[in-house]
Structures are given as C-alpha cells and as structure tokens.
Amino acid sequence: MKKSKSPTQIAFERFMKNKLAVASVIILFLIVMAVIFAPLLTDQSPTKSDLLRVEHPPSEGHPLGNDGSGRDNLSRLLYGGRISLIVGFSAMVCTLVIGVVLGSIAGYYGGIVDTIIMRIADLILMLPFIVIALTVVSIMPKVTIGSFVAIIAITSWPNLTRVIRGTYLSLREQEFVQGAKAIGASDFRIIFKYFIPNAIGPIIVNASLMMATYIIIESAMSFIGFGIPQPTATWGNMLSEAQSIRILRNSPEAWVPPGLAIFITVLCINFIGDGLRDALDPKSNRR
Q: What is the pTM of this model?
C-alpha cells in the first residue's frame, strides 16, 4: 500500500515545480552568502575614507571605485547589504510577533478585546506610514538599527493582524475547535495546536512579502536622509550619495550595483512569496 504524502511534502513538491521560485531561492542564497562572508570578498573597510581616492574610478583593489568620501564602493555594497537584510528580516520578525499575537487574541476571544484591537489597527491604517515614520525619526536624537526596526514594526502590524484575525474567525466555530474546548483544552493549547498551524500558510506568505517591503522602506528612507545615518553603509545610503547629476552621468559604478542589489533581492523575495502562496494553497491547481 502506497504511503500517503504529508501536507508538508505536498507543499514542498509544489514549490519545487515552480522554477522561478526555486531560482529565486538560489539567487537570494548567493546574495546572503556574499554579505555574510564580505570579509573574504574584500579587505577594504566600508567606513574608512581615503581622501586621495575621492570619486576614483574602478581600479585594481577597488573594482567598483570609491565614493565621494573616498570609501570603497564594493565593501560598502557588501557590508551595506548586511544592514539592509538585517533591517528587513528583523522588522519582519517583530511585525510577525506583534501581528500574530494581537490577531490571535482578537480572532479567538472576540468581543470587546477584538473591538479595541481592531480600532487601534484602523487608526494606524488611516495614517500614511511615511508620515508616521518621518515624524518619529525627525524627533529622535539618533536613529539606530534597533529604533528603525521598531518604527517599522509598530506601524506595520495592523495588516497582518487583520489577516490572522480573519483566519481565526473562520476556524473558531469549527467542530474540532469546539471538541477541544469540550474536553477542557486550554486557550493557549487550542491556539498553538489548532489555530496557528491552520494559519501558517498566510503567515509565511505575508512574512516573505513583508521582508521585501521593509527592504524597500529602508532604502527609501535612507535615500531621503531619514534612515540609518552615515557612515553606516546601506544600499539606500549608497543611492543617496549618488543623487548628483555628475555622479549619475560619470560614475554609474556608484549607484548601479546597489540599485540592482535592491531590485534583484526584492524581486527574488516576491517570487519566493508567490511560490509559497501557490504551494501552501490547498485549492491550488498547478499543472
């Protein structure tokens, strides 16, 4: 008798059939490995200035040249990728924790608790993210990676909370949940054993798409001067330094690599998210 496949095996096989998603995983893995092992790829410091090499074109030892402060562009690209990916991943994890916890409480208990959480979520969604972020950043004495991640997470949890709440509301009246309550299972056990496993698909898909969004947010905020401050290297900071027409025309090596890095990374994460959505959807009819 042939052994039936588990839902995890079925989802994995579906994902592996998505060639675009698999290729994106490979490319993203190479990008992550490059930024992790940056010291092995370059011996230059991302923050050390060499005034004799200000805006110097590519040369031996400096394949991407130097920026307007004499810092090596390749080292800033690699080490800046660390910061951009750390911000995107950390903000995604923090948002995930806040969104899942509040969404679980609102969807499971309902009533006045649900009303309060949803009204707070509606209030945050009414205000444009960029307005909240710029306001908070402008009044802070110094923006650090931790504070920047906190700003993103605190202003981004409502969307995920609404998704989790909606999933829980559809599960709350199911027979297996009522049966667990009847035999005296605690609320904590019911949520973690029945609710979260059934909501894991939307959680994973939203997590991947959130990380892509947060990388773009970090780059955009740094580009306009409200992100991670100099001399810390990020992809957004590199683009911010290349705003002048002179650099745009004469030094494409200063802005094309970080721009491509952002574009490729975000594109890969989005393709992976699409692949996960199709793989985890039980109604998916992939050929």
A: 0.83
Distance, C-alpha 162 to centroid of its chain: 18
pLDDT band at 26 (very low <50, low <70, confident <90, very high): very high
Respond yes or no on whether the N-terminal peptide bond of residue 231 is cis (omega within 30° of 0): yes
Looking at residue 265, its pLDDT comes to 93
The structural domains of the chain, with segments of one domain joined by +, span 84-279
Contact 194, 176 (CB under 8 A): yes
Tokens 């975000």 appear where?
A: 266
Tokens coding 155: 């202003």
**Topology classification of domain 84-279:** MetI-like fold (1.10.3720)
Question: Which two tokens mark 113?
Answer: 């608790």
Type of residue at 200: I
Other CB atoms within 10 A of residue 108 CB? 20
Asked if residue 287 has pLDDT above 50, the reply is no
Cβ contacts of 6 within 8 Å, gap of 6 or more:
none
Alpha-carbon separation of residue 262 from 30, 40, 84 (angstroms): 14, 22, 9
Residue reference for tokens 């027979």 = 175
What's the token pair of residue 129?
């993210």
Q: Could you tell me if 257 and 34 are in contact, meaning their C-beta atoms sit under 8 angstroms apart?
A: no
